[in-house]
Design a protein that fits this description.
- Keywords: Amino-acid transport, Cell inner membrane, Cell membrane, Ion transport, Membrane, Sodium, Sodium transport, Symport, Transmembrane, Transmembrane helix, Transport.
- This is Sodium/proline symporter.
- The chain crosses the membrane at residues 6-24, 74-92, 126-147, 159-180, 187-206, 232-255, 276-295, 307-333, 374-391, 397-417, 429-447, 459-477.
- Its main location: membrane.
- With 504 residues, this protein is mainly α.
- It has a single domain (3-205, 227-290, 306-394), classed as Sodium/glucose cotransporter (Up-down Bundle), CATH 1.20.1730.10.
- It is 78% helix and 0% strand.
- Helix 7 (159-205) packs across helix 14 (319-360).
- The longest helix has 47 residues, at 159-205.
Length: 504
């Protein structure tokens, strides 16, 4: 690859490390600053960091590839994601921001689950933390695989070396600056992704004489919209739209709502975030669609549809711009990895290590400085395990991501909603709902119960049954169990009143 491209990447890496150093000097003196940025994150940073950490390399590689392969069927996944993200901003963000602060300043999602029921050291907190660390270690590994393969395919760098480069930069700024560094780098990375997903499809389209020429070339390989509607099934539509259900339970996304500086700032964050998401998703779909047309019209060989963005970047742009576009893919990958590392480390520190220490020796409370140090060790530990899992280049990416998305969505999604909206929800119901959702997803993915040995996930996306089972379990168990503390409903009422006061 030309030297100009490497120069663009070097500037990007230096900028990320500079942000990490800045955040280290600004917000890591206490655990609240390290984990949630002191709950003072601006709506602009909240919006773009949530979007960037959500979409990852899937936005620049997975979605264009899906559009390239299946045509308009990929649009329904995009519709489900947009609807889910909007519902997350409307239903979860305001209540979660207030409730986590009212519930004795909960810093992590598992801590909120436990303090919601006035049981700060209960097994509910530890079990939910274990689920987060397990799924996010796999999720982080999938991101590292994407980074390694990007370096291998675009820069002719050894796959394992690509892993170390990707992880080295991410761990450096996450280790230094914590949540503020992750959010600020995500903001920059979100801006880069936005420009890239507008620029690439527009420049590729200019290679055609007209819209009709482009669409005619594309329809040589994929059906047009009306034809795709004729072959669409109800189960297929539900599986695509069901991706939106996952938003309610993604810890690396909803933690942004906990960190925003005020409830009143959420409206601004929502407007910015949804605008960013609409433009980038349309850009990703357009990249895939123009890619089909370009390949047919000009005889372009595309061995892997998920690399169409990379191919366009190298084929249509000056090397300096090409390097910037490669940085956009790295930005998407790194933004998600850093968020997952921090949330995993937060759960290890706050929800497992601190709880176990308090249970064993209640009088030996950890200082703020000790807790931040342990949090940094947690980041490094999860990173090392994820790196070991990613060393095999044959690892699949999309299956790991979709499975983890479904696992979090089913285990935590209904629980988050019930915690915020059902005042008589019980701790027993919370535990049962969380476990039943996770188990259902795992059964759907791995149990070969169909006649030909296939799993149920080949019939319908596992998040749908998992979400339904968890919801039903939460409702039924709550009806037949009682809260162990009278303070639970009082805290719920306090959070509701505080939300009303802040919104008035």
């Amino acid at each position: 690859m030309p030297m100009e491209s490497y120069l663009s990447l070097a500037v990007y890496f230096i900028a990320m490390l500079g942000i990490g150093l800045f955040a280290y000097r600004q917000s890591t003196s206490d655990i609240s600053g390290y984990i949630l940025g002191g709950r003072q994150v601006s709506p602009q940073v909240t919006a773009l960091s949530a979007g960037a950490s959500d979409m990852s390399g899937w936005m620049l590689m997975g979605l264009p590839g899906a559009m390239y392969l299946t045509g308009f069927d990929a649009v329904y996944i995009a519709i489900g994601l947009v609807a889910g993200a909007l519902a997350n901003y409307l239903l979860v963000a305001p209540k979660l921001r207030v409730y986590t602060e009212v519930a004795n300043d909960s810093l992590t999602v598992p801590e909120f689950f436990a303090k919601r029921f006035n049981t700060p050291n209960a097994s509910l907190r530890i079990v939910s933390a274990v689920i987060i660390v397990l799924f996010f270690t796999l999720y982080t590994s999938a991101g590292l695989v994407a980074g390694g393969k990007l370096f291998e395919s675009a820069f002719s760098v050894n796959y394992q070396l690509g892993l170390f480069i990707t992880l080295g930069v991410v761990v450096s700024y996450t280790l230094l600056g914590g949540f503020l560094a992750v959010s600020l780098t995500d903001f920059v990375q979100g801006c880069i992704m936005f420009v890239a997903l507008v620029l690439v499809p527009i420049v590729a389209f200019t290679e055609f004489d007209s819209v009709s020429q482009m669409t005619s070339a594309a329809y040589q390989s994929v059906p047009n919209f009306s034809e795709s509607l004729e072959t669409l099934t109800i189960v297929g539509l539900l599986s695509s739209l069901g991706w939106g259900l996952g938003y309610f339970g993604q810890p690396h996304i909803i933690v942004r709502f906990m960190a925003i500086r005020s409830v009143n700032a959420i409206g601004t964050a929502r407007n910015i975030g949804m605008s960013w998401m609409l433009v980038t998703i349309i850009g990703a779909l357009a990249t895939g669609f123009v890619g089909i047309a370009y390949a047919n019209q000009f005889g372009l060989a595309v061995d892997d549809p998920e690399t169409i963005f990379i191919i366009f970047s190298q084929l249509l742009f000056h090397p300096l711009i090409s390097g910037f576009l490669m940085a956009a893919i790295l930005a998407a990958i790194m933004s998600t990895i850093s968020s997952q590392l921090l949330v995993s480390a937060s759960s290890l520190t706050e929800d497992i290590y601190r709880v176990m220490v308090n249970k064993k020796s209640p009088e030996k409370s950890l200082s703020e400085k000790q807790t931040v140090t342990i949090g940094r060790y947690g980041v490094a530990g999860v990173a090392v395990v994820a790196l070991l899992l990613a060393m095999d280049a044959s690892n699949t990416i999309l299956s790991l991501v979709s499975n983890a998305w479904a696992g979090f969505g089913a285990a935590f999604g209904p629980l988050v909603l019930f915690c915020l909206y059902k005042k008589d929800l019980t701790a027993k119901a919370a535990m049962a709902g969380m476990i039943s959702g996770a188990v259902t997803v795992l059964f759907w993915i791995y149990a070969p119960v169909l006649a030909d040995g296939k799993t149920l996930s080949s019939v319908i996306y596992e998040i749908i049954p998992g979400f339904a089972v968890s919801t039903l379990t939460l409702y039924m168990v709550s009806r037949f169990s009682e809260n162990s503390s009278k303070n639970v409903q009082a805290t719920f009422a306090q959070a509701t009143e505080e939300l009303a006061n802040q919104q008035s």
